[in-house]
Amino acid sequence: MLEQHLDSLEFSGLIRLAQMEPEVEYLFRHALVQDVVYTSLLNRDRQQLHNAVGHALERLYPERLEFLSPVLGHHFDAAGDEQRACAYFIMAGNRALAAYANREAENHYRRALELTDVTPQQVLNATCRFLAEILLELGELTRAEQALREALEASGKSGGWNSVWPLCLLSALHARQGKTHLEAARGWLAQARAAASEQANVFDREKLLTAEARLACSEERWTEAMTAFAAAADLQAKMELRWYQARTLQEWAEACLASQQPDATEHARTLLDKALTLFEEMKVTHYAALVMDRLQTIG
């Protein structure tokens, strides 16, 4: 019966066969046809269809849920199943973040955060922090600060769970904005230290060291900055946080060059070589290319 309907639609010119392998797939011949068909459905029917598609994908491809997470998030969102949609949007954001597709990750996290009524507070906290890190990487400081403040709010609602990370990032965010923001950077870092003394775990220590190094750089306290960067990179290596280790090595190298200390250029080149190796091992081509360009500029 289904094949007869598909044959009829194809004969009428509304759809076309896109592929036979690995599975049969049809597409509308024109986006306008798809829009007309979709808008002609009652809202209740649309929700039911989206729900049916989402559950069918879960049932047919249980081993591919992470790969299909953006599609599943869309279908369950349109079906009104906010809890499932939120879980899949976060999964999609994590997958995009791991691939360093920052814009895509931001979009998925944003949609998950819009479903805050069904998002557990600890998950909301982590999602806000991941979003903030993406925005910092993209240089969108105002939006990053907003996400970090949302993370702090979520942390408060979950009993102060893991507030050190957003506090450290807030300090770093202000430290990079120049002398007029240094007082704010110091204030956020002081709060992070206080929170870390209560929570005391190795992840907080790693974030604190990085924040302390960044503030020391902004205040041109080069010896303290180098010590903090070295400790942070060493801890990240022990924790196998290769992405953060590579980024710390990059920042450490830039601090060496800015300090203009003896042998600074040679030390910076050594640090960048290590960062390049890590990025290449992780197959992060974009950042590997940036490090290679920097190595060429410093000679």
Any overview of this molecule?
A two-stranded antiparallel sheet has the order 1-2. With 299 residues, it is mainly α. It is elongated and about 80 Å long. The chain has helices at 2-11, 31-39, 43-60, 65-79, 82-98, 102-114, 121-137, 141-157, 164-175, 182-199, 202-218, 222-238, 242-259, 264-281, 285-298; strands at 15-19, 25-28. The protein contains 15 helices and 2 strands. Helices cover 77% and strands 3% of the residues. A hairpin with a 5-residue loop joins strand 1 (15-19) and strand 2. Among the domains are: 1-40, no CATH class; 238-299.
Element order, helices and strands?
Answer: HEEHHHHHHHHHHHHHH
Biggest sheet: strand arrangement:
1-2
End-to-end gap? 70 Å
Provide the low-confidence segments as ranges: none
Largest sheet: 2 strands, antiparallel
Q: How many runs of DSSP E, i.e. beta strands? A: 2
Discrete helix count: 15
Q: What general form does the structure show? A: elongated
- Structural class comes to mainly alpha
Beta-strand level of the residues, as a percent range? under 5%
Helix content percent band: over 70%
Could you name the key traits of this structure?
two-stranded antiparallel sheet, 77% helix, mainly alpha, elongated, 299 residues, 2 strands
